[in-house]
Design brief:
With 319 residues, the chain is mainly α. It has 12 helices and 3 strands, in the order H-E-H-H-H-E-H-H-H-E-H-H-H-H-H. Mean pLDDT is 82; it is low at 6-12.
Length: 319
């Protein structure tokens, strides 16, 4: 590997190419993991695309909650497509290299979609807060224009953070080694390859992660705190059950996304290990993206009915 690294460096000894570490020397293990990830990837793409299509084609779903859900599905598609193809290639191919520019692009899109999803989950929590705590003003306060603005802010924050973090990381000098002990160009894995003392850089990335991950999470906690207070004073059990059922899917998605993300990016550096980082990466890039459409479709009658109509139309068309 060191010989390859030296060939990938120019006269200034700045690494121009990286290479992903081999997952295992046992070919059968790599192949089985490849099949598993590929199936989950295809399931994620299909499920999220169907939800976005259901919103697009069904006028009955043109409400704030489903507008945000369609945006979440689009983010999930971009999120998985930014890393999983590279992950699959590194599992079964000997060509595991990636250029510095390609690595930077992958990091940008991964950060962009990930941070945008953090912000969008907060917007979805605010939507549920307005629906339950202020139902009489919900239609005016959560108008189409407001929903579009919240979505644009979420995408915009993700873009700015992605550009800032990527530019900051790749402004560092990389003089070798160039083997990335990960499935893709994730922030901690790339930062570990930078030359010299990177403690200040690691601290800056850690602070940025706290702000970008914790701030939306605190908004979610505040929204659900108000929701819980409102639900507890509802007179009828049916009303409480209905109010909580509209939030259960979102709460489960938030738990999966923030749970894995917080463990990955907010735990101390001393607790990081390549094996654990790879396991967590598989969870928050593949498993959660596959589970999200399943969670929403199984627990939401409107989504389930819209998906059934889409599938029935496809069957009739093919017949």
């Amino acid at each position: 590997m060191n010989l390859s690294c030296s060939l990938w460096q120019d006269n200034s000894l700045s690494v121009k190419h990286f290479a992903f570490a081999k997952f295992s020397e046992v070919t059968e293990q790599c192949f089985l993991l490849f099949i598993l990830i590929l199936l989950m990837f295809l399931a994620s793409l299909t499920g999220n695309a169907l939800i976005a299509l259901a919103f697009r084609t069904n006028s009955g779903l043109h409400m704030p909650m489903y507008f945000f859900l369609a945006n979440l599905s689009l983010l999930e598609i971009g999120y998985t497509c930014s890393v999983i193809p590279t992950m699959l290639q590194s599992l079964v191919s000997e060509a595991r290299g990636i250029s510095r520019e390609g690595c930077a692009m992958q990091m940008f899109f991964f950060t962009f979609f990930g941070i945008s999803e953090c912000c969008l989950l907060a917007a979805m929590a605010f939507d549920r807060y307005m629906a339950i705590c202020s139902p009489l003003h919900y239609a005016t306060r959560m108008s189409r224009g407001v929903c579009v603005q919240l979505a644009l802010v979420s995408w915009g924050v993700g873009c700015m953070v992605g550009l800032g973090q990527t530019n900051y990381i790749f402004s560092l000098n990389f003089c070798g080694p160039c083997e990335i002990d990960h499935f893709f160009c994730d922030l901690p894995a790339i930062l570990a390859l930078a030359c010299g003392d990177t403690s200040h850089n690691e601290a800056a990335v850690f602070v940025a992660a706290i702000l970008c991950i914790s701030s939306p999470f605190l908004l979610i906690v505040a929204s659900y705190g108000r929701i819980l207070a409102a639900v507890l004073i509802m007179p009828s059990p049916e009303g409480r059950h209905k109010a909580l059922s509209t939030c259960s899917s979102h709460l489960l998605v938030v738990t999966l996304f923030y749970g894995s993300g917080s463990v990955t990016y907010l735990r101390p550096k001393d607790n990081h290990s390549p094996g654990m980082d790879k396991l967590l990466a598989l969870f928050y890039t593949v498993v959660t993206s596959m589970l999200n459409p399943i969670i929403y479709s199984l627990r939401n009658k409107e989504i389930k009915a819209a998906l059934q109509r889409i599938l029935e139309k496809k069957v009739l068309t093919c017949g």
